[in-house]
Amino acid sequence: MENEQEQDDHCPMEEKEETKQEEEDEERLEKEHFWKIINAFKYYRIYAHERVTRSEKQFQSLPAAHQKLLPNFLPHVRKLRECIEHNYEILKEIINNCNHMFENKEYGFIDMESDLEGLKPASTFDMDKLKSTIKQFVRDWSEDGKSERDACYQPIIDEILKQFPQDEWNSSNLNILVPGAGLGRLAWEIARLGYSCQGNEWSLYMLFCSHFILNRCSGVNTMAIYPWIHQFSNNKRSADQIRPVYFPDVDSHSLPSYANFSMTAGDFQEIYTEPNSWDCVATCFFIDTAHNVVDYIETIWKILKLGGIWINLGPLLYHFENMANEKSIELSYEDIRHCILEYGFNLEVEKNSVPSTYTENDQSMLKFLYDCVFFVARKPAYASPLNGFARINS
Question: CB count, 10 Å around CB of 380?
Fold first, then answer.
């Protein structure tokens, strides 16, 4: 009995130590990830110039007669390098302004000018993420992205206005969540209408840039970026590759004084666990970011209030499909629809063909068009928090 008692007495201490170790490991991994993203921002200049140097060397390997036929090639290369330098200055401003942006985290002081000698080559994956984020400035905060926003964001905004008319509801008391908020424009637009809105984003690339636009940019079209300089194919004109995009197309500080708008950083499923706490969850180009989209459905069901609605628009380009060592369940919309109904949602609106682009270069010879699904699903007013699970387990 004594030995059994000793084992019982030691178990809680061992569990505490294990929990503490897990927390320390998680914190260490978070810091490593944070500094990996900072490293990618710092490495951008080297990476981009190396790509231009490769083009320059290829040109110089051509026969002299061929080079003479292309008198504008090297001047264009010089302009590309100037655009890289400009983009790098923007990235420096973004990083230098994100010190202390996380209220509950302290990663150390960030200075883009320091420690360049110890800079590590960033992976192709990380640089692709950064280039993709640069194009998000176009989609979310430029006049050039208005047509995309009209296609993707406006149907969601129109549905919110339809479901929660401002002349019938005290809109500031309505809590709307936008997971996968990107650079924050959709959530910002919802808040501008007077609704209480919170955007959530996991990607530090996005979070750094959204923080810069929402907190450090003032005025309209006061800044420029060159988002297309990394695209060397499908350019009709050389000038198309180096054309600037101006941002922000609205003053991000122009929210009304009564607006309730915020952004949170972190994993959607880990942060949002409080049952029956949101009137509306709006997802745009988001549900395919899941390892298992059923987990997202389950979380949304749980956090919606009774009678709350889920508005979704987007394709199913599963982000983890071809990533080694990452779980990825690629479901058809048919399967997703079945799961939504099995959880207990009522589908009130459903459109199976909503065309939209994503960070499109409108001057490119190659364009991708997504045929998106749009739906509005309601959690019944009579549902209990276990209603959906009961249906699944029955």
Answer: 14
- Its pTM stands at 0.90
pLDDT tens-digit series, residues 273-328 = 999 999 999 999 999 999 999 999 999 999 999 999 999 999 999 999 999 999 99
* Spatial distance between the Cα atoms of 370 and 316, rounded to a whole number of angstroms: 9
Which amino acid is located at 200 in the chain? N
Helix H or strand E segment including 120? none
Phi-psi region of 277 (alpha: psi -120 to 50; beta: other; left: phi over 0): alpha
Long-range CB contacts for residues 43-48, cutoff 8 Å, separation at least 24: 43/119, 43/120, 43/121, 43/122, 43/127, 44/87, 44/88, 44/91, 44/127, 44/130, 45/84, 45/85, 45/88, 46/119, 46/121, 47/122, 47/127, 48/84, 48/87, 48/88, 48/229, 48/230
Sign of CA dihedral 222, 90, 137, 189: negative
146: which 2 tokens?
């208005």
Residue whose C-alpha is closest to residue 200's, from 129, 144, 278: 278
Q: What is the pLDDT of residues 382-392, one digit of tens each?
A: 855 445 444 44
Beta-sheet strands, E only, within the chain: 175-179, 196-201, 223-225, 245-247, 261-265, 278-284, 304-314, 346-356, 370-378
For residue 167, the tally of other CB atoms under 10 A from its CB is 5
Determine whether 390 is exposed, middle or buried from the number of CB atoms within 10 Å of its CB (0-12, 13-18, 19+): exposed
Polymer length of the chain? 394
User: pLDDT at residue 9 above 70?
Assistant: no
Q: Are strands 346-356 and 304-314 parallel, antiparallel or unpaired?
A: unpaired
Question: Which amino acid is it at 107?
Answer: Y
28-41 tens-digit pLDDT: 888 899 999 999 99
Q: Give SS3 for 100.
A: coil
